[in-house]
Design brief:
The chain has 386 residues and is α/β, with parallel strands linked by helices. It folds into two domains: 12-344, Rossmann fold (3-Layer(aba) Sandwich); 351-386. It is 43% helix and 8% strand. It has helices at 12-19, 21-24, 56-81, 95-102, 118-124, 133-136, 145-148, 159-174, 192-203, 223-226, 250-265, 295-302, 306-316, 322-344, 364-377; strands spanning 110-112, 180-185, 208-214, 217-218, 221-222, 242-246, 271-276. Helix 3 (56-81) packs antiparallel against helix 13 and helix 4 (95-102) runs parallel beside helix 11. The chain is globular and about 70 Å long. It starts with 11 loop residues before the first helix and ends in a 9-residue tail after the last helix.
Length: 386
């Protein structure tokens, strides 16, 4: 991947774009976009400089990332349907929001995500099997957070925003210019945790970016029921500048995220990004969206597909040749095959390993629970409880 997350050149108008972040979400109409649904490139003086280093070759890399994670997502969904995973939360339709923001991050930034940010985890370097092992039920954690500077996915809705803010305060105390980034959905903004995190972040000018993927649904509840104004409008009330971006436009997401990260690194404090996108699939594979979603709505959003617009632009530029297209598809299939073979080869863990790594040091309470569970398991056929 050749995307440089620290472009060497900056322009004064880009800095001006940062200063105006607080104004962008207020009327609910100003949606930052650089590449429209038809693949046409548009200019925006506030944010063009943040992607001045992105030419056709770099955009091809972003396209490849999106194509790969879409393939990962479809393979994981198939694995769940075939009984190899217990559950899977699809990201179909949200590839641009995740890749655009994920590729803006620096290695020392720290990510706190929800359970749907598989694309961000891929950008951070999570192993293919590590993306799935929790959903297979063979472990309590997919990866060591400090190996990739990304916390394991948070299932408790919105709690990760507090974690990110606390981590950002630690960054601030250490005097480094790393940034904490919290990912969450539109539904999470109704949780008290998110609002509390915004208060603390604003009060202490914490170097944190709040990245809300507004995919239009909190499980089965449309965003229109919980937000009578654009979600980005809420943050300024806490003293956090906000920006709304076309979440299906990978170039615009990259630009806006870079701007927010730079603002945090240089002492500007937190920024709230609302990436307006759409969840094309179910909330999880246990969900049936046909019970609450009009098919015509789905059709309308298919016309805004994040991959199709990049493909149209690159094809018009002569950059996406048949040879490159074939190579990208082959890579995506190879990644899916590697992931499938790795996850299906995993063995079920010994039941008593549920007590491993719960505490840094052993103690009598944990030993007592282990003993009770061990005796319980022995009541079943087989000494190991299987």
């Amino acid at each position: 991947m050749t995307i440089d997350n620290q472009p060497a050149t900056r322009r004064s108008d880009a800095r001006a774009g940062l200063e105006s972040l607080g104004d962008l979400g207020l009327d609910g109409l100003d949606l930052v976009g650089l590449l429209d649904a038809d693949g046409a490139r548009h200019s925006d003086d506030r944010f063009d400089a943040w992607v001045s280093d992105i030419g056709p070759e770099q955009l091809l890399d972003l396209y490849e990332d999106m194509r790969v994670i879409r393939r990962i997502d479809s393979e994981a969904t198939a694995l769940q349907r075939q009984g190899e995973l217990g559950l899977w939360p699809p990201l179909l339709g949200q590839e641009a929001a995740q890749i655009g923001s994920g590729r803006a991050l620096r290695a020392d930034d720290f990510v706190f995500s929800s359970y749907r940010e598989h694309g961000v985890a891929y950008c951070r370097g999570a192993g293919l099997v590590d993306l799935l092992r929790v959903w297979r039920g063979t472990t309590q954690s997919g990866w060591n957070p400090y190996d990739i500077n990304m916390a394991t996915p948070q299932v408790i809705i919105g709690a990760q925003t507090l974690h990110a803010t606390g981590y950002a305060l630690g960054i601030q105390a250490d005097g480094t210019d790393a940034v904490a980034v919290a990912y969450f959905g539109d539904g999470a903004t109704s949780e008290g945790d998110v609002n509390e995190a915004l208060i603390f972040a604003a009060t202490y000018a914490a170097p944190v970016v709040f990245f809300c993927q507004n995919n239009q649904y909190a499980i089965s509840e449309p965003v229109s029921l919980q937000a009578q104004r654009p979600i980005a409008d809420r943050a300024p009330g806490f003293g956090v500048p906000s920006v709304r971006v076309d979440g299906n436009d990978v170039l615009a997401v990259l630009a806006v995220t870079r701007a927010a990260l730079d603002r945090a690194r240089t002492g500007g404090g937190p920024t709230f990004i609302e990436a307006v996108t759409y969840r094309m699939g179910p909330h999880t594979t246990a969900d049936d969206p046909t019970r609450y979603r009009d098919p015509s709505e789905l059709d309308a959003w298919r016309g805004k597909d994040p991959l199709a617009r990049v493909e149209a632009y690159l094809t018009a530029q002569g950059a996406l040749t048949d040879e490159r297209r074939t190579a990208i598809a082959a890579k995506a299939d190879a990644v899916a095959a590697e992931m499938r073979s790795g996850i299906t080869a995993l063995q079920d863990p010994d039941p008593l390993t549920v007590f491993d790594n719960v505490y840094a040091e052993p103690h009598t309470g944990l030993a007592r629970q282990r003993d009770h569970y061990s005796r319980y398991l022995r009541t079943f056929v087989g000494s190991d409880g299987r």
